[in-house]
């Protein structure tokens, strides 16, 4: 369990990191028989509100956490990339730096490093890269929703950039790493990579896209965010669950666009529909109610709505690991996205206005977010729902106790 004060992310102090760096240095020497030339770090993140809407084009509100990925690096004269991990569960890996192949069918740990490496390589159009020895040490719980995989992609991108002696802005790095993580098969947005690079001490961030930018959001003084692990792991690249939601949102955007007479074949994100119509999020919820039905759509019905063949649907719209899906829930996914996007803006407004009951208002928005994730987006699980209920009941009990004390 991780307790985060309302001041947000704080960089680990040098005294905190020094023992870890020394241990990593010793392990590197034991593994490679040499000394690392530099270290690179990328933090994990917790998303306060704005779940599963970044890849739909909408703003999110995350903050970084102290848990991170740390890599010790030594450039070598060969063209071999040697990767090792301090966790014995993750086996060593070696490959040619000039022949990077990322297996989408097996989301092994080293493939996330290769994503960041390949992203920088392709950005600069380089064909011959120097090799390196890398030892990775991560203390972000894997599969816990704190973005350990994206932190590794970001770390690898920064490692590669440093070895090459190249220079990029944090925004450019974030955009490259967001795109390169898709090499592993996930059709994600750019939140995880953006906050990993753009996080600053003492604040959460509103992350906006197209163009990518980050704005400080000062959280209420005295508020504390407790990150609790349900211990149910989910590797989003290992199954099609994540990509199915992305495709359902994409299909919903296209059907909504077609319904409103827009050029639907050019539309990819739900945000584009709102922008082209020039209406509010609340009005988009009404459009969703009018245009989409709650029953799941079959592939054949979607084809009829869009006037395309099944082959066109599978080859031009769906991702490879969602082409065998028979039904898609468009109404529920669109309802979640538009309502969640509105909650992000409301959350930011409460933080800016800072009323006396700010914590209560923010808590209710987060409760609404979880209910929508559970019921409309179906990205929760029984264990997480139970954990949320336990926390809410505990808070209610504490409030009653304080009320009784005040009465007495």
Outline of this structure?
The chain is α+β, with helices and mostly antiparallel strands and 408 residues long. Helices cover 47% and strands 17% of the residues.
Question: Your description of this structure?
Answer:
The protein has 408 residues and is of the alpha+beta class. The chain folds into 2 domains: 27-217, Ribosomal Protein S5, domain 2 (2-Layer Sandwich), CATH 3.30.230.10; 239-405, Up-down Bundle (de novo design (two linked rop proteins)), CATH 1.20.1440.340. Helices cover 47% and strands 17% of the residues. The chain contains 13 helices and 11 strands. The two termini are 34 Å apart. The model has no long low-confidence stretch (mean pLDDT 92). It comes from Mesocricetus auratus (Golden hamster).
């Amino acid at each position: 369990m991780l307790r985060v004060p309302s001041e947000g992310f704080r960089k680990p102090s040098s005294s905190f990191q020094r023992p870890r760096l020394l241990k990593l240095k010793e392990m590197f020497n034991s593994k490679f028989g040499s000394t690392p030339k530099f270290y690179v770090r990328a933090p994990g993140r917790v998303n306060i509100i704005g779940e599963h809407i970044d890849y739909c084009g909408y703003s999110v509100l995350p903050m970084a956490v102290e848990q991170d990925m740390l890599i010790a690096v030594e450039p070598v004269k060969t063209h071999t990339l040697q990767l090792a991990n301090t966790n014995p569960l993750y086996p060593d890996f070696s490959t040619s730096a000039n022949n990077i192949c990322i297996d989408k069918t097996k989301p092994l740990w080293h493939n996330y490093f290769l994503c960041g490496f390949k992203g920088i390589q392709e950005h600069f159009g380089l064909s011959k890269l120097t090799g390196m020895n890398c030892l990775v040490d991560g203390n972000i719980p894997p599969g816990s929703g704190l973005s350990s995989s994206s932190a590794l992609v970001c770390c690898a991108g920064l490692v590669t950039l440093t070895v090459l002696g190249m220079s990029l802005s944090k925004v450019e790095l974030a955009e490259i790493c967001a795109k390169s993580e898709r090499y592993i098969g996930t059709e994600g947005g750019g939140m995880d990579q953006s906050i990993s690079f753009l996080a600053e001490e003492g604040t959460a961030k509103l992350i906006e896209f197209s163009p990518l930018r980050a704005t400080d959001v000062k959280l209420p003084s005295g508020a504390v965010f407790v990150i609790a692990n349900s211990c149910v792991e989910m590797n989003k690249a290992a199954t099609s669950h994540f990509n199915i939601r992305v495709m359902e949102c994409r299909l919903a955007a296209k059907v909504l666009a077609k319904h409103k007479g827009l050029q639907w074949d050019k539309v990819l994100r739900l945000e584009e529909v709102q922008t082209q119509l020039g209406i509010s999020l609340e009005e988009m919820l009404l459009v969703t109610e009018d245009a989409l039905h709650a029953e799941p759509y079959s592939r054949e019905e979607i084809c009829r709505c869009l006037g395309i063949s099944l082959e066109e649907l599978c080859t031009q719209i769906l991702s490879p690991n969602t082409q065998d899906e028979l039904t898609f829930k468009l109404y529920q996914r669109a309802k979640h996205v538009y309502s969640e996007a509105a909650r992000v803006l409301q959350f930011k407004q409460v933080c800016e206005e800072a009323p006396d009951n700010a914590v209560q208002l923010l808590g209710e928005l987060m409760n609404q977010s979880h209910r929508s994730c559970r019921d409309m987006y179906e990205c929760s699980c029984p264990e997480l729902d139970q954990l949320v209920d336990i926390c809410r009941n505990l808070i209610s009990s504490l409030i009653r106790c304080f009320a009784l004390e005040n009465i007495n």
